[in-house]
Amino acid sequence: MGAPMAARLLGGGFDLTVWNRTPEKAAGLVGMGARLVATPAAAVEGADAAVLVLTDDAAVADLLFDAGVAAALKPGSLVIDMSTIDPAAAREHAARLAREGVAALDAPVSGGTRGAAEGALTIFVGGDASDFERAKPIFGPLGRAHHLGPAGSGQIAKCANQLIVAVSIAAVAEAFELAAAGGLDVTGLREALMGGFADSRVLREHGQRMLERAFEPGGSVRNQVKDLAAVLSVAREHSLTLPVTERVSELFRDASRTFGDLDHSALLLEVERLNSAAAHGAAGATVADD
Length: 290
Hints:
The chain is mostly helical. The chain folds into 2 domains: 2-150, NAD(P)-binding Rossmann-like Domain (Rossmann fold); 156-281, N-(1-d-carboxylethyl)-l-norvaline Dehydrogenase, domain 2, CATH 1.10.1040.10. The chain is 59% helix and 10% strand. The chain contains 14 helices and 8 strands. The chain has a 3-stranded parallel beta sheet with strand order 3-4-5, sandwiched between helices. A 3-stranded mixed beta sheet has the order 6-7-8. Strands 1-2 form a two-stranded parallel sheet. Helix 8 (129-139) links the parallel strand 7 (121-125) and strand 8. Helix 1 runs parallel beside helix 7 (112-118), helix 9 crosses helix 11 (201-212) and helix 13 (243-259) packs across helix 14 (267-289). The chain is globular. It starts with a helix and ends with a helix.
């Protein structure tokens, strides 16, 4: 996600310095005008704003507070964390940065790598309204930004987004398995469903991935597990029971053992595995009964 987002910022005329744990991943941006540096602290020296796109809570905390980014940022600058992390972690990071005189927005995104490349991301933003206004020119080339409340609010919105996405992927996978078992042409089923109440972007895009068995990752099964853990953490914080999310989270965790590095639409493979195992078990029982 970070590379196409950085490319959009360069295309928008921003002066951009970049750092990546794997420098080769950022090398292509140099030809577009970015300056590649060896350390994250060097990347933010003198910057008005620092944009982070990282994997999880631990990676963000390590970059900000162990790798020296917070200390290297000038007072009054702005950190825009576009990673998907736990809302409690986002609030903690914002508080720690505030003590350094640095403002923070949590601004996770939805739209995948294609949305990043096209500047069509949906951006969920938490933090002070004045800082959101400061960040609008940065958000402009990336997509549509929505300010949803104080620190952590962007991450809570992303939790809601990921809950819907995960449950929808599970529903499409089970619907396809049901249809195939009933002898339907699943390609024809998907076309029939589009336009009705069951239509969705998940049906259209991830359903197509399932039909093509094209599971190269955009968002991986493993990252979906991480995101659902954050959803359930928020639920526990507010004493909520989310029974559907809990079951879907279990299903993704089981899938991650074998299919963790594949796209999250590969949940279909776990549904198929479960039904294959059930069918084999039933066949074995029949033989034993005979």
